[in-house]
Design brief:
seven-stranded mixed sheet; 36% strand; 3 helices
Length: 227
């Protein structure tokens, strides 16, 4: 499973666009009055201006080259304040041999740069936003995680390592060898490196094999299908 395109909504839209395109200098693919699409390696990411008085936010992770964690961290610290958890501004995940840093963008999104030390490709050029390899994690907040996970079984997407599904915590959907995951979580969970609780907002994800996932305007998970 690989994530081809993610579409999200953003409040504070002009500041969010300036943050990604001017401050971080993500490569731009297209731009209109109320939306823009940027390139993140293998993935296109679109932000659409959120309706007035709505403040959606999401968690997503971008892969960085496996040999550039410290360089990427210093580059990011020069542009944005890193989030902290228990006084630390980075974390090592032993189970997947990866390191991450987190920060928030002007829309309130919880953005993660993750370095998969054993999986991600290396780079020989100085780190910039153009070095980011893909969206490797997209969190999907749902009303009923068990039901949502079952819907993905119907299109042959299963839990990472076929771990038992639990109602609490995160459920990683996708194969470890692809290192790309949809993270299903019930609303109300407190996000790591944040004091925000997970809430449901419209989002659309298109996978490289044509499977699509959408949380619609009624905050319902639409059935995945091949396009």
């Amino acid at each position: 499973m690989k994530i081809k395109h993610v579409t999200m909504y953003a409040s504070n839209f002009d500041a969010t666009k300036q943050f990604y395109l001017d401050n971080l200098q993500f490569p731009i693919l297209s731009e209109e009055r109320n939306r823009f699409t940027m390139n993140v390696g293998e993935t296109a990411v679109t932000f659409i201006e959120a309706p007035l008085n709505e403040k959606p936010f999401y968690h997503f992770a971008f892969d960085i080259p496996s040999n550039q964690f410290e360089e990427a961290k210093e580059w990011t610290k020069g542009k944005v304040t890193l989030s902290q958890e228990q006084g630390e501004d980075d974390v090592y995940f032993e189970g997947i041999d990866a390191k991450s840093i987190y920060f928030e963008d002007p829309a309130g999104n919880i953005v993660e740069f993750i370095c998969r030390l054993s999986d991600a490709k290396q780079s020989a050029v100085p780190f910039t936003a153009s070095s980011l390899q893909k969206v490797s994690e997209m969190s999907i907040v749902v009303k009923d995680k068990l039901k949502s996970v079952s819907a993905f079984h119907e299109v042959s997407i299963f839990e990472r390592d076929h771990k038992e599904i639990t109602a609490e915590g995160l459920t990683f959907m996708g194969a470890r060898e692809d290192a790309s995951y949809l993270l299903f979580v019930n609303e109300g969970r407190t996000w790591y490196f944040s004091n925000k609780n997970a809430d449901i907002f419209p989002v659309e994800v298109l996978l490289a094999d044509g499977v699509s996932l959408k949380i619609d305007e009624n905050l319902e998970l639409m059935s995945s299908n091949r396009v």
